[in-house]
Amino acid sequence: MDIDVVINEAYLPLLQDDTRTQIFFGGSSSGKSFFLAQRTVLDVLQGERNYLVARNVLSTVKKSVFNEIKKAINNMNLSSVFKVNESNMVITCTLNQKQILFAGLDDPEKIKSVTPIDGVITDVWVEEATETKYEAIKQLNKRLRGRSKAKKRLILSFNPVLQSHWIYKEYFSGWQDDKQFYRDENLIILKTTYQDNDFLEPDDIAELENETDPYFRDVYTYGKWGVLGNVIFKNWETKDLSEIRDTLDRFNNGLDFGFARDPSALAHMHYDRVFTTFVRYRPTVKMHFRQRAATVYPNRNHCEKSPQGTSFPQTGSPHSFYPYYIYC
């Protein structure tokens, strides 16, 4: 079978690499996910590998990595040999019955029962791995068991966050920041940036190169691990709390004008031993006050001035907050 595929040069040496643990990290728009989707399709087509592709929350899988793999199939003109089950998010190669399965790490019991129709899972790819917990990755690693012709692999891809993250502590002890690649017997690490992506448009490049915020420039443009600067709280994590939002009965609100170079934010919080905070930063929207406080609305993209001079969105019900959508 002739396959038409173009792969970014930076990733080509790893197309058939079978090292047990593989980490692909770096800046935004570096082509990490694009390459891994291509490799996933080609591996399954060859008939020796079954993939489990995961993100921290199942609801984010379909709109991201699931679609990325479908695009890879279409771009390589392989739609005729892959059957896509949209509802169950299962992709099966009709030539050999090998599969690409998808899951969210927010339901560990389902992860334990995931099984392909032919053979065992040989590859686990975790997209946006910095969203996950150490225990979840360890559990996924245990899924890589059973007899197979192909060597089993755990694959993590992500944009770096802070050096305090468990991934940095677990895997980056031998890493040198002035290098792009690391290899030992059981681990490879590849760092890439937008400069390694041959398919970016000029406006995409300009957006990354014109970034002025030091943290975002280091992490998303240059693919560097972030370093804690002028921050107050360090022991925090990000979660999707939409499923428990309706079970909380008491909330407090506070306006934070920022501690260092951060944008201001209105924080909507529930307190139960620890703070559960629903926040979205909107540094481009300015609030001003004269006679009364601003009214806050969810999921709105524009503001208007009230007669009293308070900026607030045009439509929506006041105080009907939704996780991640608080504007300031």
Can you put this structure into words, describing what you see?
It is built from 7 helices and 14 strands. It is an alpha/beta fold and 328 residues long. The C terminus is likely disordered. The chain is globular and about 60 Å long. The termini are far apart. The longest helix has 15 residues. A hairpin with an 8-residue loop joins strand 10 and strand 11.
Number of helices: 7
- How helical, in percent, are the residues? 10-25%
Cα(first) to Cα(last) distance is 55 Å
Q: What integer is the average pLDDT?
A: 81
What is the total tally of β strands?
14
Output the structural class: alpha/beta
What brief labels describe this structure?
about 325 residues; alpha/beta; nine-stranded mixed sheet; three-stranded antiparallel sheet; 14 strands; disordered C terminus
Structure in a nutshell:
This protein is of the alpha/beta class and 328 residues long.
Task: Summarize the helices and strands and which ones pair or pack.
Layout: E1 21-26, H1 32-46, E2 51-55, H2 62-75, E3 82-85, E4 90-93, E5 99-104, H3 108-113, E6 123-127, H4 134-142, E7 153-158, H5 166-171, E8 181-183, E9 187-192, H6 202-209, H7 214-221, E10 252-256, E11 265-272, E12 274-278, E13 303-305, E14 311-313
Parallel strand pairs: 1-7, 1-9, 2-5, 2-6, 6-7
Antiparallel strand pairs: 3-4, 4-5, 8-9, 10-11, 11-12, 13-14
